[in-house]
Design brief:
Blueprint lengths: L1 E2 L8 E4 L5 H9 L19 H25 L7 H17 L8 E2 L17 E2 L3 E3 L2 E5 L19 H11 L5 E5 L3 E6 L9 E5 H6 L3 H11 L11
Helix pairs in contact: 1-6, 2-3, 2-6
Length: about 230
Amino acid sequence: MQTIAQNNFITVKTEGGILPADLLQRIADGGEVEGLNPTDYHLGANERPSEAMNRSWNRLLGAWQAFQSKMAAIGPTDSGTTMTREWTLTVLQELGYGRLPFLGSLSVQHSTTDHGPRNTDNDPTYPISHLYDHTPIHLVSFRQKLDGRDDSQAVKRSPHSLVQECLNRSDNHLWAFVSNGLRFRILRDNVSLSRAAYVEFDLQAMFDGELYSDFTLFWLLCHQSRVEIRDWR
């Protein structure tokens, strides 16, 4: 496992090399990385990303405290899914995704070995909660570990495995997010890799510790402009 230096980013880790730690550090430092200009984030020419990040940070600190209160008060038999999604959707809203509607099911197109007409009846379907453009976004309860199976549900795979399989089998989806409100992961189609690969942000530690420097990397890396369809060539 490769983890960003603890003295710089306490709540961020990268595994599998899909976005190496040195690249994340360059992004955070505002180094020579394509796509980091204010206009690339759909900001005004005279508006700095730091100003937008600061506004989002202040709003999300309050939203996090409200979510903490709800977690403390929730009953033992309540799944917590709705309240967790409400918090995570607020995070995504501050990252430029707007108010994402519930999806619930995502059918993906995958390549076939023959050259005849595609039979869409064979396209696999995944219980992905949300979708932005071509980016699956799966939001689960804070009580569900991202790498843990929930045998009480129909899906007998972890949220991470579910989303990764969706990416690997799809011809139209390259990146995805998965979150339980406490942790937020970036996943990529990595069918050629033999082990897990992701970038994870520990939102709980980030907001509890008020680690603004970690939040700036989170904002820069997960902003809506990073996954919208555009020609980056």
